Amino acid sequence: WDETHFGKMGSYYINRTFFFDVHPPLGKMLIGLAGYLSGYDGTFPFQKPGDRYEQHNYMGMRGVRPHRLFCAFLGSCLVPFAYLTVLELSKSLPAALLTAFILIFDTGCITLSQYILLDPILMFFLMGAVLSMVKCNSCANRPFSASWWFWLSLTGVNLAGAMGVKFVGLFVVLLVGLNTIYDLWDLLGNLSLSLVVFGKHLLARVLCLIVLPLALYTAMFAVHFTVLNKSGPGDGFFSSAFQSQLIGNNLHNVSIPE
Q: Which residues of the chain have pLDDT under 50?
């Protein structure tokens, strides 16, 4: 059923048609990009659930056998993400294998990953953020090393990705935030660390877990508004001054007083 929404929004990006949606733009942009790169021309109407795609090349956006592409690929990444996360937390190979086994045969996960939906994209970034956070924690004994910076920065990138797909990504932001507060509190109580070193730890986390995600999140909207430069169904949600910038709108290039 949701394919009629998110597939259509992928088409809007390919056709550069402006629209409005309650979710942030990243997931739909990635769906549109996957369709564009795989040869979909953005002409399928997505009028009602169950319509046959016929000759339209939808495989790149969805992911059905034998062509497991974008959404199915991201859904399949959840298995190694879960395996590595549990292995890092428990140091138990049987526990990690059991986790991966459960996810491989989870009907809901398999089904969600086979359609043009935001869910596999969201879960990819959610689990990616948790994995990055756990790997960063494992590097606590060698702070400011290359691997420590890599996993800390990747955590910030995944936080931006999760928030950029759906606002429910706030929950993983909360999880990482609580982990960071605990980590900093522990460092502050370490009397062998000077306040200068603690300040460096604090600054590193501010840069990677606040500034970087905010910059990436803002950049998503910059791309969104740059790509969607033609008049469409979302015009009426915005001001006359904004509508005057959209090609094909009745107000296009009209001088709008402040």
A: 64-68
- Asked whether the beta carbons of 87 and 93 are under 8 A apart, the reply is yes
Instruction: Please report, as a single letter, which amino acid is at residue 251.
Output: L
Q: pLDDT for 11-39, tens place per residue?
A: 889 989 998 989 999 999 998 888 888 77
Tokens of 252: 């296009």
Q: Specify the residue for token string 């597939």.
A: 7
